[in-house]
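Two proteins, back to back. First:
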Amino acid sequence: MSHEIQIVAPAASVWDAVVDPHKYRAWTREFHPTSYFEGGWNKGDKILFLGQDDKGSIGGMVAEIAESDFPKFISIRHLGYVQDGFEDTQSEAVRALFPSYENYFLEEIGDGKTRFRVELDMDESYWEMMQEMWPRALKALKDVVEQAESPKIYPCLWFDKEAGEAA
């Protein structure tokens, strides 16, 4: 599966929205309202993609960063599940589904724009759900990045030096 979007911002700004904990929460709400991560985004780092269910239980995915090339490419190798704080990367059910990959490609395309593309290698049981969620998440990512990039307009007072008063 592959999805992409153009974002009016440099690749470094898009990268920042992916790896910054607060910005990450803003665009990944499309997957789960309480989505967050624990871990790092450098090659070899362990990373947990987590959320809290309505009973207060923490669950999600166990992964590692397979590749990280700022600001062009991130490859996430999913290894298993987290449920109630327990990481399962060895059960027969998990080994049938994993590893799987989630790859982010960031390409500056001129005019201050970046093409962000995600490619997913996953079990077909997730296909329909991800086919619906990823376009919404990419739109949210675009909004997060472009809002952070837009110039802030503050009211200002111009001072006319010759008149010695505000204009």
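And the second protein:
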Amino acid sequence: MNMNADKTKYTTLNRVTYKNLRTKKLGSLISDCEDIKYRISQANSAFKKMTRLWLQHLHITPTKIRLYNACIKPIATYNMSTSGLSERALNSLNFMHRRHLRYLSGYHYPKLISNANLYRLCKTDMLFLDIYTARWKLFGHIL
């Protein structure tokens, strides 16, 4: 098997460089904290690209939720089941998810809705539950 040496990238890890590492491996950054920020920015970017679609109806529709689940959630949760995430990182993912759901359902500042009612209205769960489910599936696959 031939390997293209020009495209090969070697990375040396130690405790000092690991925290500030911006190297990508298989589409994910090696540093978990940086990867979370990158995933959130990518999901926000994809969400903004679909703004015209989201604004067609002022109320939430099953099609909006299906498109969100098919196009935006995979970007935010890609490869998250393989990394050990802190509670703060999971909360930032859930915050992004709720912000998107509030935008889809038309709830903005003057109108308030609790998180439980928002999830019930959108017929979805918290994002970290999807990550935990993917972890258990990966664990079962490995076993």
